[in-house]
Amino acid sequence: MAENANEYLAREKVGKLIMKFSVPAVASMLVSSLYNMVDQVFIGRGVGMYGNGATNVVYPATVIALAIALLMGDGAAAFVSICQGKKDFKSANRTVGNVIGLSILVSLVLCGIFLSLKEPLLKLFGATEMNLPFARDYYGIIVIGLPFFMFGCVLNGLIRADGSPKFAMITNFLGCAINLVFDPIAIFVLHWGMKGAAIATIAGQIISALCGIWYLFHMKSVKLDKSCFIPDGSTIRQFLTMGLSSFLTQLSIVAIMVIINNILITFGAASKYGPDIPLTVIGIVSKITGLVIAFVVGIAGGCQPIVGYNFGAKEYDRVKQIYKTMMLLEGIIAFVTMVLCELFPIQIVSIFGKQGDLYNEFANYALRIQMITIVFCAIAKSSAIFLQSIGRPVMATSVSVVRDFALSVVLQLTLPRIFGVVGVLWAVPIIDTVALLMVIVFIRKVFGEFDKAGAA
Fold first, then answer.
1. Could you write out the DSSP letters of every residue in 381-449?
2. Which of 110, 373, 388, 404 is the most buried (most CB within 10 A)?
3. Could you tell me which of 168, 169, 165, 195 has the C-alpha nearest to residue 182?
4. Which range in 8-17, 111-120, 258-267, 292-301 is most confidently predicted, on average pLDDT?
5. CA 170 to chain centroid
6. What are the distances in angstroms from CA 77 to CA 71, 92, 159, 241, 267?
7. Nearest to residue 106, comparing CAs of 291, 247, 221, 276?
8. Which among 189, 193, 258 has a CA at the least distance from the CA of 44?
9. pTM, whole model, 2 decimals?
10. Ordered DSSP codes for 267-334
11. Average pLDDT in the 412-435 region?
12. Are 233 and 64 in contact (CB under 8 A)?
């Protein structure tokens, strides 16, 4: 029966399950990360430094949309997996129907708000006099595509929870392929500049969303009828609570980006680098970091249905085994990345376009300093997803709030006043170290509870 389609999650070997779910999830996350990376590379070479700075200014709008999409999508996917592990298939079906309706409504409202507040938001996000014209062109089109982007993100989580990680990967691949093909055509052939890059991006997002819609009519473990789409306050509250950590993590990124962008402009103007070099470099470094985090979140997010199902089935030893395997894989990936960034910083940054000596000097500092604790960052972020998957939203949210907001705000406002614009860079290693210590405490507590439950 369709209701029992995911029972193998409690029987199959852990290593085989992680490969089955995490490889497509990592690929999907990489593709999502590449959307912005591709734009940065082509814009850097076709438009220039101010174009790249403009994408960094517009990026917070995309992250806000992603935060809301993950609040709904990640929460619903985690709740569906736990419900299926408990054999509560009615709640799982109702969750899928409710999150679909909610995501359509919320994405359209957000699009309208962003379009009506275009100029104030661009200035708030840190637009400078030089990059503002480029930011206007890019923002206007990107915002129109946000409903497709958000709906696609929500559906992607549901598809993985339904036991089809490969299909989720394919939808993202198709979207990225469209973007990759049309980006150089729009920028170098049609000479549409920033508008062309934005059109290529939303074209890919539309294709991904359409693939997700097709899948809704072919789900394996979820059967939808009209009753599933009737809004249910209790169901919505439960899955939104489980997605709160993902939401706050992304929302914190927006807050920090706004703070950092404005600090870079202020303290950069008082330094030899000027305001635009730090703003552009930090945007590029964040995209490189995002590529690494794509691996980390992909592995952890791919394991979410396995963790949630086994936790719901009270298979605590398997849950612990999954977590330890995740940490091993992610630690290796993060360590290799750290070594490469420490040894070849300029070569990596130059992929996004070659600039002058001052640009390269700041890029060298930025990439090497911010990547020194990328292993700590990987462990903290994936552990927060793990805690979210086993229904511990308070722990998961605590890590996100402290790491991505509270501590970050304090350090970003304090260190530049002492060390100048370079102080912005040193906040990251401190934040990652504190987050790692928090995660160690939480995971030890959870594993202790698992051991007691197993003994009982």
1. HHHHHHHHHTT-HHHHHHHHHIIIIIHHHHHHHHHHHHHGGGHHHHHHHHHHHHHHHHHHHHHHHHHHH
2. 388
3. 195
4. 111-120
5. 18
6. 10, 9, 8, 12, 42
7. 247
8. 193
9. 0.69
10. HHHTSTTTTHHHHHHHHHHHHHHHHHHHHHHHHHHHHHHHHHHHHHTT-HHHHHHHHHHHHHHHHHHH
11. 90
12. no
Dihedral (CA of 449, 444, 88, 10) sign: negative
As given in the structure block, the two tokens for residue 418 are 């002492």
> In this structure, are residues 211 and 195 in contact, taking their beta carbons and an 8 Å threshold?
no
Contacts of 314 (CB under 8 A, 6+ apart): 453
Contact 349, 363 (CB under 8 A): yes
pLDDT tens, position by position, 355-413:
788 888 998 989 999 899 999 999 998 998 899 888 787 888 888 788 877 888 889 88
Rounded-to-integer distance, Cα 33 and Cα 26, Å: 10
Residue 103 amino acid letter: S
295-314 confidence digits (pLDDT tens) = 888 888 788 888 888 888 88
What's the pLDDT band for 4 if we cut at 50, 70, 90?
Answer: low
The tokens describing 51, both together, are 């174009």
Vertex 411 angle, CA 410 and 417, to 5°: 105
192-222 b/e (C-beta count within 10 Å ≥ 16 → b): bbbbbbbbbbbbbbbbbbebbeebbeebebb
Number of CB atoms found within 10 A of residue 423's CB: 18
**Locus of tokens 């569906």:** 80
DSSP 380: H
Query: What is d(CA 160, CA 306) in angstroms, rounded to the nearest whole number?
Result: 10
Is residue 350 within 8 Å of 40, Cβ to Cβ?
no
Region of residue 168 (left: phi > 0; alpha: psi -120 to 50; beta: else): alpha
